[in-house]
Amino acid sequence: MHIEVLTIGNELLNGDLADSNTQRFGTLLRDLGLPVRRAQTVPDTLAVIVEALQTAIARADVVLVSGGLGPTEDDLTFEAAALAAGVPLVEHAGTMARLEERFKSRGFPLTPNNLRQAQVPQGADVFDNPVGTAPHVQLQVGRSRLFFFPGVPIELQRLADDILRPWLVANAPARVYKSRVFKTFGRTESQVATFLDGLPRDPRMHVAYRAHFPEIQVSLHVEDPDATAADALLASSSAFVQHALGDIIYSEDKRDTPQSVVARLLQAQSATLATAESCTGGLVSKLLTDLPGSSGFFLEGFIAYSNAAKTARLGVSEALIEEHGAVSEAVSRAMAEGARMASGATWSVAITGIAGPGGATATKPLGTTHIAVAGPNGTVHLHRKFPFDRERNRTVAAISALDLLRRQLV
After folding, report:
1. Which of 122, 223, 401, 410 has the fewest C-beta atoms lying within 10 Å of its C-beta?
2. Contact 69, 119 (CB under 8 A)
3. Which fold has domain 3-171?
4. Which residues, in sequence order, are CB contacts of 384 under 8 Å at separation 6+?
5. What is the pLDDT of residues 127-143, one digit of tens each?
């Protein structure tokens, strides 16, 4: 089955908004073992949208379209679809009634421009949108089935899950497509790929690398008509990857993050955590407390930005700071141990560094970072020199601290 994606909107082309809907379509289709053959992004220009639809219709069995279904004058998708299909726009009574009821229940007037959303190509199948005003519409044009979704991601995701997925399960040809993902941290993409140089190559398998700062994801995708053979190839290849990458793999669940893995380990061990942060300004604490249930393991965080705060809040001696400097192994260890003692937590992590753009010296260049984890068996330390800008130096420092803690917990 030939499937194409068409996303519509000036904001996707002028840099105002990233196109996340193509990703959403791709993820859903991959879960079903179906590839996206092509994807287009076009502006809110009627002639261009018509041309893009006609091009996709000429070569695709399924065309997934998002955007341009709103009430404003630049929402032209249904008008373009009608022109591409050679049919008029007609009012859909069900959508009109739903819009009237929706606005009445909220105490808002139904303005004339909202009525545009009830104008659909003649002959289309129209489905209610439970989380928005624009309907989901399907239109058959020759051999092509066109699916029209609102551009709002939460609306698209809901409609794709509720309507598109069941349709594909019922109508797409069965395809044995097996995948496995390995999420890694601590090595560059080129280094990870080098570790896997010896992975046996097989025409049935595709190895994909994705740099999603600050981690590298490795995915194995196997396609074979024989499900047993596909499973066997995926299993043997996965075993090679696990051995080659070792403990830089922090998870094999694509939904995981470094902080969710740490949270799960802490909860499984009934352990608690405190943080002591200087250059990251509380970022580690934020990443952890963004997670539901974090109150079960996270006790408190210290943002000890100044030297005085390191001394007053964490008990780091002035003499130690004077001797080694605030950005040093000795101070990071003292911060971690001080936070653990002050909070009574099982574990603590500490970070001190030079995130930039200022503050560097000849002996401590920009990006110099010291991380320490204190726990029941003592304190471990990690020294890194990150080569990024301020924001990314802070991000990778926070994730490095979580990864160092993960390694102690396992």
Report:
1. 410
2. no
3. Molybdenum Cofactor Biosythetic Enzyme; Chain A (3.40.980)
4. 367, 368, 369, 371, 396, 397, 400
5. 999 999 999 999 999 99
